[in-house]
C-alpha cells in the first residue's frame, strides 16, 4: 500500500520564511523518527497553493503561516475532505489548530502596559495587513481598558523580530510580541541590547507547536495508514501531546509577558543554552548565541535537507503553476 501523501504548506521566501524554516526543520525531524509514516511534499505558501494541494490528491495538509491565506484555503480543504493541521494559525473545526488568538495577544499587551504603570500606550507597527490588524486590536483593547493612546506613551512595537530595531527608540521599557522558536529571535536579542524589553510570548513556542502537530500526524498514520478525512482528523487530535480546545488552540495555552532575557529558546540542539537555558540574558547576547541570520538561506537549507531524502522517505517541493 502506498504511503500517505502529506502536503506541507510553508513560506520558502519573504518575510514569513522564518515560519517555513521552523516547519521544515520539524518535518525533517519527524520524517527521521517515523520514516514509514508518510511521504512529505512541500508546497510554497503562495497564492494558488491551496488549489495545487487539492489537485495533487494529498491525504492531509499541515502548515500555513498567514492567517488570511489559511482562511481562504480552508473551504477548499473542507470541500475536498482533507484534514488540515495548523501549528501557527488559529482556526476552529474541522481544522486542528495549535495557535493562540491575536485578540488575546492584544489584551495581554495592554495588560502588560498597565502592569508597568503606563498612563498611555504608543503603538508602532510594521507594514502589512497582519500588523495593521494587530495594531487595531491593541487599540481596541486599550480603549476597553481605559488606557490612553498617544505619542510619548509606553511603546509597543508590532513587527517581525528581525525588524524590531527599526521601530524602538530609547532604553525602554518596551513591549513586543516574541516567539523564541523562530531563528529571528537571535536578531531581536541583538537589537534589544541595553534596552528594557518585555517580551509578549506564547507559553508554547513555534518549534514545539510544529513538532506536536507533526508528531501526532505521523503517529496516527503509522498506527493506521488507511485513515482519511474526519477519522484521520480525530486520530491526530487523539495523538496530540497537547490537548486541543474545541474552538482551536492548545487548551490552557496563554500569552505571557517576560523580560527578554527570561525567554528560553526551545530549538533543541540548535542554540547553546546558558545556566538557565536562555540564549539572551538581560538583553545581552551571550557567546554562542545566533548572529543575525539569512532567513531565506536557512529555509533553503531545510528544504534541501528534505529533498535529500531517499526514495524510502520521499519528499518533494511544489510551487503553484505560474508562481515564482
Largest sheet: spatial strand order: 5-4-3-1-2-14
By DSSP, the count of extended strands is 14
* Biggest pleated-sheet summary: 6 strands, parallel
Can you tell me the overall shape?
elongated
Strand content: 15-25%
Low-pLDDT runs of 5+ residues are 266-303, 307-315, 320-324
Report how far the terminal alpha carbons are from each other: 34 Å
Indicate the percent of residues in helices.
25-40%
Number of helices: 9
Please provide a written account of the structure.
The structure is a single chain. With 324 residues, the protein is an alpha/beta fold. The chain is 36% helix and 18% strand. The chain contains nine helices and 14 strands. The strands form four sheets. It has a six-stranded parallel β-sheet with strand order 5-4-3-1-2-14, sandwiched between helices. A three-stranded parallel β-sheet has the order 7-6-8, covered by helices on one side. Strands 9-10-11 form a three-stranded mixed β-sheet, with helices on one face. The protein is elongated. The two termini are 34 Å apart. 49% of the residues are buried. The C terminus is likely disordered.
